[in-house]
């Protein structure tokens, strides 16, 4: 990536694009892959809304296995990755990460300002998601030491560009803690571009991939706007 270009966003299958990324060329990964839950929202009255369509690859465990392996390859030595994960599949994600060679440093608990619906009669509402912090080698964090419980409001209502959108403030915390200005931050499941916006607003560069054309267009416009704002 050139010094003048702040972001590169590709619309394609992440595994195909990642094959073109050189070994040990990425400084940090902050990524929100499919949770293997075949998730779609059931709360919208308009069932034709894009949020009511299951996330692409959300039942493909091989995709996650191969993605984790490629993440390890493209990361520089002594770097970190934050990977969002649902509690139902935490064992699978942990096993695959460790099998690939990552060292698990924390299972961060992100506590939100609301909770899920789910089975209203037999299941308590879930108010958190997990973020697995791993190292390739050993990566020191920047600044003061934090706890592994983080409080950030979820993105909701009309502000949502993606049904699984993560708050910018949370992503910025990840990025500031484990990278430096002008570092390259990668996300192979870019969605609506939240990780990219957080990277640009913290003075980093962003390399992202999104397979869905609608979300790619949303993310690309969003990042172009942010790039103009921070000039």
UniProtKB/TrEMBL annotation:
Xref: PROSITE patterns: N6_MTASE (PS00092)
Residue ranges of domain DNA methylase N-4/N-6 in the record: 26-221
Pfam families tied to this protein: N6_N4_Mtase
BP GO annotations: DNA restriction-modification system; methylation
Enzyme class: transferase
EC number: 2.1.1.-
Keyword flag Transferase: yes
A GO MF term: site-specific DNA-methyltransferase (adenine-specific) activity
UniProt keyword terms in alphabetical order: Methyltransferase, Restriction system, Transferase
GO annotations of cellular component type: cytoplasm
Recorded family membership: Belongs to the N(4)/N(6)-methyltransferase family.
Record's protein name: Methyltransferase
Lineage: Bacteria, Bacillati, Bacillota, Erysipelotrichia, Erysipelotrichales
